Amino acid sequence: MCADINRVSGARLADIKHIRSYVLCQGQGNRNMGYFQKSSEILKPVEDKSAMFMGVPLVINSLDFACKAEVCRGKIAIAGFQRLQDYLVNNSGELGYAVIGALDANGRPVLRVDIQGVVSLQCQRCLQELEHVLDIHAVLLLAQNEQELQSFDEDESVDCILAQPDMDVLSLIEDEIILGLPVSPRHEQSECTSGGREDGKAAREASPFAALAALKKTH
């Protein structure tokens, strides 16, 4: 029997203007045990259902997906991530993904989200384009309710989410990408172009703070 969960507190995703909510089905904690190696908790899915986004949101039942150790994978155009666009210099290219359901060593349903690819950010030192390599491997523990979520959150070694039977996989992947972006992306100092450094200096001088500093110097 599944318990519907409507909302989840935004503690984990407060900075990306999106709240994930999922559902965890009770009574199946002992089903499909062993998809993690207990020593290293490496996922071993037994069923692979490949999927591609073709302009239609991919929705899965997170409970069944985890308990049946299903897998969906494919490639997504970077331009398809609406919220991610605010962080990018350009949106060309695509990312590879895999969403894997399993039970951990303690028999708890989890989702693993793997994402690989390259996104174009803006270097905060030279203001030029910076190619940032994504190699994300997130394991998300599914909680039954907000009380259980809070309990799991006390363990800093795991990331916990609530579940829903109609989970939007595209949003899940986008959440993990945004959470994995650097706060202040920068080239190595030797890689920043001289033109970029000049552009950065000009931008700083044109800022309101620079104008205020100049005003103070004249008084």
Automatic annotation (TrEMBL):
Belongs to the DUF177 domain family. Plays a role in synthesis, processing and/or stability of 23S rRNA. The keyword tRNA processing does not apply. It comes from Nitrosospira multiformis. Keywords: Ribosome biogenesis. Transmembrane segments: none annotated. Coiled coil: none annotated. This is Large ribosomal RNA subunit accumulation protein YceD. GO terms for cellular component: cytosol. One of its GO terms (biological process) is ribosome biogenesis.
